[in-house]
TrEMBL record:
InterPro entries: Kinase-like_dom_sf (IPR011009), Leu-rich_rpt (IPR001611), Leu-rich_rpt_typical-subtyp (IPR003591), LRR_dom_sf (IPR032675), LRR_domain-containing (IPR050216), Prot_kinase_dom (IPR000719), Protein_kinase_ATP_BS (IPR017441), Ser-Thr/Tyr_kinase_cat_dom (IPR001245). It holds the Pfam family PK_Tyr_Ser-Thr. One of its GO terms (molecular function) is kinase activity. It comes from Shewanella japonica. The keyword Phosphoprotein does not apply. SMART domains: LRR_BAC (SM00364), LRR_TYP (SM00369). Residues 210-455 form the Protein kinase domain. ATP binds at residue 248. Keywords: ATP-binding, Kinase, Leucine-rich repeat, Nucleotide-binding, Repeat, Transferase. This is Protein kinase.
Length: 455
């Protein structure tokens, strides 16, 4: 998400912001009470971000913000969701990440809520009124103490992304796995997925063996560095004791996807595949938890960009990004093969997106980022199959997004009959993946075969 410009309380109180008729307001000044001057912006304010303060309540008059669409109150001191927000007529995007919320009252959210973030709180249960959120697409609940989801949520037919990792779920309801549009689901770190697997047989490395270099990237669960690995013992295939690697060091805290330890577990359980970023060793000593991975060759770049506030759950793409139909076929055939491999190992990825896919100019791909992955070994056979079908829908969304970007680009206007035939075939395949009946979707093995036949 693009950061909003930071405003000051002094600007607000002086009337300067009202005169500007601003649509977006962000203040972070350790506020303990809600500045009532915000209510004077009711005729224009659409986005309000008061994250990183010390607020614990909202005034009854808050509902006068008739144009408000987006409300972020993360990293504050709320212990209960303030029910007044339900009276905001246009509010659809709500974030209360990392408060101390224990209580979620009935009917406290607007019925048109589309995006709801309640990660890292102390919520024990959700109200039955959750089922009234008929537009809910994205719901993040990781890092709470929820023991079960309300059955009413089976009415949330628009739900596409759900994060319920790091809670207290003893089972996964069948209705959840049957939701027609659910595509990105993560529920690791619950009793239902708890594994005793320690991966003690996987190569262990020590932090003392590494010399850290440049930071390559940073995500919710950790930081990735380029590093020199000075191995104590050489593999027979190695000609030097020094190897350049990518070293991912996990943060300890729960993320929007779950616990870092579950990411590490799923990554090691996944095993090797030509289109998965190869893991060479693990680090588990004291507070240090990490993965040693092969460095991604130069020339690879992210195929897509993360979703925006507008697209909510769907990838975005750089305007200059172009991709041929042949490349789309190669990418998706490789992806289907990698995902078939993962599900054979009973691991769901949970985050199948173009922005998690690295590609080079020859359309070779490397897929990674297991932050939302889930170990499926303790589920029933039917639920394991349903989880694959959910991931097939995510695959279909990714294919649809790539085809949409291809068709919108003037670079790809073509009267070539073969291209039109290929495009039509891929659209039909997309429809199969997006079938609202979970049981009617193809498996990843079937998808890999069908796409490969197009090549």
């Amino acid at each position: 998400m693009k950061e909003l410009p930071l405003h000051t309380l002094a600007q607000l109180q002086s009337g300067e912001l009202k005169q500007q008729h601003i649509k977006r307001l962000q203040i972070a000044e350790q506020l303990t009470t809600f500045p009532l001057e915000i209510l004077t912006l009711s005729d224009s304010l659409e986005v309000l971000d008061l994250s990183n303060n010390r607020l614990s309540s909202l005034p009854d008059e808050f509902a006068c913000l008739a144009e408000l669409k987006i409300l972020f109150l993360s990293f504050n001191c709320f212990t209960e969701i303030p029910s007044v927000i339900a009276q905001c007529p246009k509010l659809e995007m709500i974030g209360f990440k990392a408060n101390q919320i224990e209580s979620v009252p009935e009917n406290c959210f607007p019925v048109d809520t589309r995006w709801l973030i309640l990660t890292d709180n102390q919520i024990t249960h959700l109200p039955e009124s959750m089922g009234q959120l008929h537009r809910l697409k994205k719901c993040a609940l990781a890092g709470n103490v929820i023991t079960q989801l309300p059955d009413s949520m089976q009415n949330c037919h628009e739900l596409e992304l759900l994060r319920i990792s790091a809670n207290k779920l003893a089972s996964v309801p069948d209705w959840l796995l049957s939701l027609p549009k659910l595509a990105w689901l993560a529920f690791s770190g619950n009793p239902v997925t708890q594994s005793s697997e320690t991966h003690a047989d996987f190569l262990q490395a020590s932090m003392s063996e590494f010399v850290l270099g440049d930071q390559l990237g940073q995500g919710a669960s950790g930081v990735i560095y380029q590093a020199q690995w000075n191995k104590a013992q050489l593999d027979s295939a190695q000609t030097s004791s020094h190897q350049t690697v990518a070293l991912k060091m996990f943060k300890g805290a729960v993320t929007s996807d779950g616990y870092p330890k579950d990411e590490l577990h799923c990554c090691l359980t996944a095993g090797e595949h030509p289109n998965l970023i190869k893991v060479l060793a693990q680090i588990a000593e004291g507070d240090d938890l990490g993965l040693v991975m092969e460095i991604i060759p130069s020339g690879y770049y992210n195929l897509g960009l993360p979703p925006s506030l507008i697209t909510c759950t769907r990838d975005t793409f750089a305007d200059e990004m172009s991709i041929s139909l042949d490349s789309i076929i190669k990418v998706m055939a490789s992806m289907a093969g990698a995902l078939a491999h993962l599900h054979q190992q009973k691991v769901s990825h949970g985050d199948i997106y173009a922005h998690n896919t690295m590609i080079d100019d020859s359309a070779n791909i490397l897929f990674g980022d297991f932050g939302a992955a889930t170990d499926l070994n303790k589920l029933s056979v039917s639920q394991v199959n349903q989880m694959q079908a959910i991931e097939v829908r995510a695959f279909g969304n990714m294919l649809e997004d790539l085809l949409g970007h291809y068709s919108q680009s003037s670079l790809h206007e073509s009267s070539d009959l073969a291209d039109k035939t290929l495009f039509t075939s891929l659209l039909l395949l997309t429809e199969q993946c997006l079938n609202n009946s979970v049981s009617q979707r193809p498996s990843f093995n079937e998808l890999a075969q069908q796409i490969s036949s197009l090549r």
